[in-house]
Design goal:
7 helices, about 40% helix, binds NADP nicotinamide-adenine-dinucleotide phosphate, NAD(P)-bd_dom_sf, two-stranded parallel sheet, SDR family oxidoreductase, alpha/beta, nine-stranded mixed sheet, Rossmann fold
Length: about 220
């Protein structure tokens, strides 16, 4: 399978690239900082510099041509302000989906977040409110498209070693932690599964082996 990963130097993205290339898939990682290219190459993926806050639809579509699937794993990240939640977490996903449609790539996995689209509780800080709004709007945009989309909402991400065991299901599964390693493993399994498209799935660590969790969807 040929997979394009947007936000290719992200912590989930690097784990995903490593897993894909290890099983014989081809990964092309879109990064915004050329200094990150060697880290991406070390995963076995091919880095391409593509800043999703500056690129045009055609430029992104050129990178997607011939791919079997696209994964949106970018995010403005902690420490960024409300404006970049909109330009990355929402607009970059919309741009990637536009490019996927233009390039004829049907499978689109969006890494979203639990809480996406929910009205923030009173007293929530502006940046968190902007984040869940941006993620919610990116999800809505994707769900309205004629693509084989999957919205994947992890719980609280950790860098612990993967367990291979998860709880995966339609909202709401309940907020809890999930390792980035297990998120990457679930994305690989979803990409290679059939009949899992057009779903919004929440993901935390749990008791069910990943393949069984996907088989039971
Ligand atoms: N933290 C949590 O508990 C949590 C929970 C659920 C979901 N999530 C979401 O899960 C997703 C992935 O998480 P993660 O930990 O892997 O994220 P991460 O390590 O912060 O990676 C995000 C990547 O997006 C890239 N990016 C930012 N702006 C870009 C642009 N304009 N063009 C191209 N790439 C750009 C970043 O590049 P640079 O390195 O150049 O900045 C970074 O490599 C994020 O969307 C995050 O919001 C997080």
């Amino acid at each position: 399978m040929n997979v394009v990963i947007a936000g290719g130097h992200g912590q989930i993205a690097l784990r995903l690239a490593r897993r894909l290339t290890a099983r014989g898939d081809d990964a092309l990682s879109l990064i915004r900082n050329p200094d990150h290219a060697d880290d991406v190459r070390a995963t076995g993926a091919r880095p391409v510099v593509c800043d999703l806050e500056r690129a045009t639809v055609d430029e992104v579509a050129d990178q997607l041509t011939g791919a079997d699937a696209v994964v949106f794993a970018a995010g403005a990240g902690p420490g960024s302000g409300a404006a970049r939640k909109d330009t990355v977490d929402r607009a970059a996903s919309v741009l990637l989906a536009d490019a996927a449609e233009r390039a004829g790539v049907r499978t689109f996995v969006q890494v979203s977040s639990m809480g996406a689209g929910k009205p923030p509780r009173e007293g929530t800080d502006d940046v968190w409110a902007a984040y869940v709004k941006a993620k919610g709007e990116a999800e809505d945009d994707l769900r309205a498209r004629d693509l084989d989309w999957i919205v994947l909402r992890p719980g609280i991400l950790t860098n612990d070693e993967g367990t291979g065991r998860v709880t995966l299901g339609e909202p709401e599964v309940g907020r809890a932690e999930v390792t980035r390693d297990d998120v990457a493993a679930v994305i690989v399994a979803l990409l290679h599964a059939s009949g899992v498209e057009r779903r919004t799935l929440e993901l935390v660590n749990g008791d069910t082996p990943i393949e069984a969790a996907i088989a039971s969807l």
